[in-house]
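Please, structure for the following, as tokens.
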Amino acid sequence: MKRLRLPLDPYILSLLGTVALAALLPARGGFASGVSGASTAAVALLFFLYGARLSTAEALDGVRHWRLHVTVLAATFLVFPLLGLAAYALRPWLLSPDLFTGFLFLTLVPSTVQSSIAFTSLARGNVPAAICAGSFSSLFGIVLTPLLAAALLGDSGGGLSAGSLGKIVVQLLLPFLAGQFLRRLLGGFLTRHKKVLGYVDRGSILLVVYTAFSEGMVRGIWHQVTVPRLFALLLAEAALLAAMLGLTWWGAGRLGFPRADRIAIQFAGSKKSLASGLPMASVLFGAHASLAVLPLMVFHQTQLMVCAVIARRRAADAVPETEGEVAVGTGSDRG
């Protein structure tokens, strides 16, 4: 029997290394100002590239599966935040106020695209639906995440205010729209240099993480985080992930979706995007972003490990289906 290997995402190791670098050599003085400016530019570049890559044609083609997409959006931007608000009962005896703010913020960010597609494919689910669902989630998240954060977090983020929405427009929404506008001109270039641009994406996020954690070190906020608090955070996030995995699978079944669609809904509706969440946190929370993004980083790795196991189980117990049924999500609903 082939041994199951749990994925330790190499990028998570890079993120942890960046956090360690910020702890040992935090940016200070003039260097900190330069790093902060570079981080702001990197965030704008990230969302410009997101807009330039998102195929409008693919998104419109996926509208015919509107019930599936509405279900994923409801899980991402309604059920997740409600569970996050329910976790207020854990504050402050289990989760410190800052960690709870980060915990609640992670429930507000969009779903992933790449890992949702990968796990849906591995589990023999509806891959085209997963592609569209992830794309729609990212698109709606640019607007919904800041609005939900302003409504639910208020001033608890330390600097999160109506003014932050203006920053979102300038640093996230406008670059995204510019990327969409220039997509026809840049499409060929982006396709030819996809691998190199992937490094640009990840390098930009690493810069955002270094900036946020450097500011946290200089301000001394890491003295507020203890090992028991981190362990409590891990338990709370494990419970959150388990709840969403269960609700998306059960709920999709109750709504009458076939098995292939249920798989796409479960993986797209239970995940949170590190790539989108980190830049958004840097804009929304500013100097307080380091603690705000810690829960998201922990959740990201947890979801990869757990979903890898579930995807392999789904693939192993899948009922025989034709290739066409799997592709369009019309297979049996047995699971």
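The first helix runs from residue 10 to 24. Residues 321-335 have pLDDT under 50 and may be disordered.
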